[in-house]
Amino acid sequence: MKITLAQQSNLENIDYDNLPFGVNFTDHMLVCHFENGAWQEPEIRPFGNLNATFALHALHYGQAAFEGMKAYRNQEGEVALFRPERNWERLNKSAERLLMPQVPHEVFIDGLKKLIEIDQAWVPQDEVKSLYIRPYLFSSSEFIAARPSERYTFAIICSPVGPYYAGAVKVKIEDVFTRAASGGIGFTKAAGNYGGAFYPTAKAIEEGYNQVIWTDHANHELIEESGTMNIMLRIGDKMITPPLTDRILAGITRDSIVTLLREWGHDVEERPIKVAEVVEAARNGELKEAFGMGTAAVVSVIQQIGFKGERFDIPTPEDGIASKIRKGLNDIRLGRVEDTHNWMVKVK
Ligand SMILES: *Cc1c(COP(=O)(O)O)cnc(C)c1O
């Protein structure tokens, strides 16, 4: 691995008490190119500009996918990643579906560990702040013809972040637009999935919501995801989340939460959930809690669900499952309890 260190750190210019999500970047990044059918030597170098012409393939045809993960500093001051192998595996699933090359373990994982070790001073020790990590892969040939790229670029950039959402959110059950269809790319973190979601989300925001709950492409009858998060509903004494299909992103937070809830003795069902069932439960008070699950916000409590113009308030109990699970994950990440699943991977 080639390493070029920054002349000067930008860390002292960052106000950690006022961290907007994803706008400040650490001193270094990792870059690795795939060309002539092979991965080249990865390089860690100062964060900086892309060197490309406007013919860059990814900009035209969207052969691009990303990951999102975080590094935490535990109470001993050690820096560790949360389940990084899962992100590596998932990026390669996205890559396969988008006909991009598989990123080798030594490029993704070894490169990531080295990068975070170099920029470790940027990782805060905090309940709500952490270092957000963005590995991504994109087509980097420079031609405009609708065929697969020949060159690809893998990169990792990092951004110190505070909480993603300010508080509990209001969500609209989407009954017109679709995020993902069967046979499509909803299960990947393909860049275009997010570009396509901005318009429906903006419509929901105009109506006074923060996000949409995506429903199935065929009839808009099934609950799928909440924005860019998986969704968990507490109906009666059951925790319910939709099963993983090719329309749903297999969240690592979702998997971790389902694992913890089951260990704690909760009844967790992974099954199709009808919009009608949720509306009915909300109407009769059986919908006790609802929350999104994802790396950025970890747990995002839902305080209101809207459906066809009707709005239902959902309880947001302070001692509810959402806060219990948030604390449970934080305890593992900050080293306050034993990491029995070996989810934390130290950077050195
Ligand atoms: C990234 C993402 C998630 C959450 O995945 P995590 O691994 O938990 O961060 C859920 N849904 C969508 C659509 C996503 O892009």
From TrEMBL:
<dbReference type="InterPro" id="IPR005786">
    <property type="entry name" value="B_amino_transII"/>
</dbReference>
<feature type="modified residue" description="N6-(pyridoxal phosphate)lysine">
    <location>
        <position position="189"/>
    </location>
</feature>
<comment type="pathway">
    <text>Amino-acid biosynthesis; L-valine biosynthesis; L-valine from pyruvate: step 4/4.</text>
</comment>
<dbReference type="GO" id="GO:0009097">
    <property type="term" value="P:isoleucine biosynthetic process"/>
</dbReference>
<keyword id="KW-0808">Transferase</keyword>
<keyword id="KW-0663">Pyridoxal phosphate</keyword>
<dbReference type="InterPro" id="IPR043131">
    <property type="entry name" value="BCAT-like_N"/>
</dbReference>
<dbReference type="Pfam" id="PF01063">
    <property type="entry name" value="Aminotran_4"/>
</dbReference>
<dbReference type="InterPro" id="IPR001544">
    <property type="entry name" value="Aminotrans_IV"/>
</dbReference>
<comment type="function">
    <text>Acts on leucine, isoleucine and valine.</text>
</comment>
<keyword id="KW-0100">Branched-chain amino acid biosynthesis</keyword>
<comment type="pathway">
    <text>Amino-acid biosynthesis; L-isoleucine biosynthesis; L-isoleucine from 2-oxobutanoate: step 4/4.</text>
</comment>
<dbReference type="InterPro" id="IPR033939">
    <property type="entry name" value="BCAT_family"/>
</dbReference>
<dbReference type="InterPro" id="IPR043132">
    <property type="entry name" value="BCAT-like_C"/>
</dbReference>
<dbReference type="GO" id="GO:0009099">
    <property type="term" value="P:L-valine biosynthetic process"/>
</dbReference>
<dbReference type="GO" id="GO:0004084">
    <property type="term" value="F:branched-chain-amino-acid transaminase activity"/>
</dbReference>
<keyword id="KW-0028">Amino-acid biosynthesis</keyword>
<comment type="similarity">
    <text>Belongs to the class-IV pyridoxal-phosphate-dependent aminotransferase family.</text>
</comment>
<protein>
    <recommendedName>
        <fullName>branched-chain-amino-acid transaminase</fullName>
        <ecNumber>2.6.1.42</ecNumber>
    </recommendedName>
</protein>
<dbReference type="GO" id="GO:0009098">
    <property type="term" value="P:L-leucine biosynthetic process"/>
</dbReference>
<dbReference type="InterPro" id="IPR036038">
    <property type="entry name" value="Aminotransferase-like"/>
</dbReference>
<keyword id="KW-0032">Aminotransferase</keyword>
